[in-house]
Design a protein that fits this description.
The structure holds two protein chains of two kinds. Chain A is mainly beta. Helices cover 9% and strands 50% of the residues of chain A. In chain A, the strands form two sheets. A five-stranded antiparallel sheet of chain A has the order 1-2-3-7-6, with no helix packed on it. Chain A has a four-stranded antiparallel sheet with strand order 5-4-8-9, with no helix packed on it. The longest helix of chain A has 11 residues, at 2-12. Chain A starts with a helix and ends with a strand. Chain B has helices spanning 2-12, 24-31, 52-62, 75-78, 123-132, 141-149, 154-161, 169-185, 193-203, 206-209, 214-224, 261-268, 289-293, 327-335, 357-368; strands spanning 243-244, 304-305. Mean pLDDT of chain B is 92; it is low at 1-17. Chain B has a two-stranded antiparallel sheet. The chains are: A mainly beta, B mainly alpha.
Amino acid sequence: MKLRALALGVLWSGGASACGTDGVPLISSDQDAPHVEMFLDDMQLAQPFSVKVIVCGDKDIHKLVVDAEMPAHQHGMNYIPTVVDLGEGAFRVDGMLFHMPGVWEIQMDLYDQTGITRYTQTTELQ
Amino acid sequence: MKRGFICAMLLLGDPVMADVILSPVEISQTLSLGPWPPEPEPDKSNRVSGDRASIALGEDLFADPILSKDASLACSSCHDPAQGFTVPLPRAVGREVLDRNSPSVVNLGGLRWFGWGGKSDNLWAASLHPIVADQEMAHSPQSLQAALSASRFKPAYEAIFGPIDTQPPEAVLVNTAKALAAYQEVLVTRSTAFDVFRDALEEQDHATALSYPEAAQRGLRIFLGRGNCIMCHSGPRFSNNEFHDAGVSYFIDETTVDQGRFGGLKFLLSNPYTLAGEWSDDEDKQGAWAVRNVRQTHADFGTFKTPSLRGVVETAPYMHNGSLPDLTAVVRHYNEIDLERMHADGEAILQPLNLSEAEISDVVAFLETLSEVSD
């Protein structure tokens, strides 16, 4: 457990410099949107977990809002996640909780001086 | 059937498993429903959690009518240990007929929410509210303090919590609830026939796995697949501990509606007895993230907590209002669910199952194995 925590700590401290590593890309319909990756930390059914998000490049980010929903079941999460700015384009999203198995769509709104950019990515919880 | 048999053979590699009819995916899902029982974890918000003297005091208080103002009701009046810690009534009876079925109080340690509407985020608060609710035990903190101070419980209380007469009445109320919680935490159901089967699958103990009835296996397959039951009745507790609209009426009578989780959240967020509050003994407030971040939506209206299915045979009647008399009626409810009744934004997962009578019997056979004690 300690080793895993240490490994996550190294990964999570990388910030924007960690772009292009093992993260899952978040998808935006805006072709000029900065590249964004996420790292899912040990998702377990009906248990809270954290997501690491890295926004690549030198964008001045005003705010990040993250949420998720199950498209097939017409509902979202029962909790509002908390976004912690780790600096250098890195964010930790705490309090994610998927209370049903299946496909979830993670949604992220990135606020900067140009406006709001919407990103999405799906993930399946068994 | 044949495909399931072949898959099981491939996974377990032994012809003796011929009568295990689950596919590898179904076996994996089955393993997620255990092991049982869980390792006990002390409740950090309750300083007497796990304390033997407090457990003993809590057990004594649980069965004594001193906790009701007119000495007419004990906790056990609605949570009878001889009847699965519930009572076989559709709706519980306190000082009047209450709005909901009396939930069992076993397997409560470590949960995130308590009660059909989740109005408590910890077990001591869930134990406290009935003591002071007007329709239930109707004490005030002052009357509870006076009753306990004049009772045979005074020495045991003071040995744990200190002099009762000099404590603020609200502290006496919270301390009493924490002793009750310490007792309820140790109420854990034993391993069942299902658990023996599940553990045998994990250990590839073929001979033991074969002792699990095939009808129960067929019911388990429906539970995992076509029935979609595992979507909400997940994990070793057979509950995701969250809130759903199961298509049951939320009318208490012709003019009154049970708000379910919507009302539970309003109550939760307006009372001081939460994991984020000053009455929690956990300085780190570890579990408080849930009450701090829980989302209030209109979709909470008429939703109720997914009940655990462990020990389910002993807890009839069923659903939040006790409207279904037996397990067959529950399976029929989901089999013929009324889509007109569901909210427009209700659970899209619930559809009529079109199970045959034999399949309904199989699901019931499976549910019954969640209660059988295996020794």
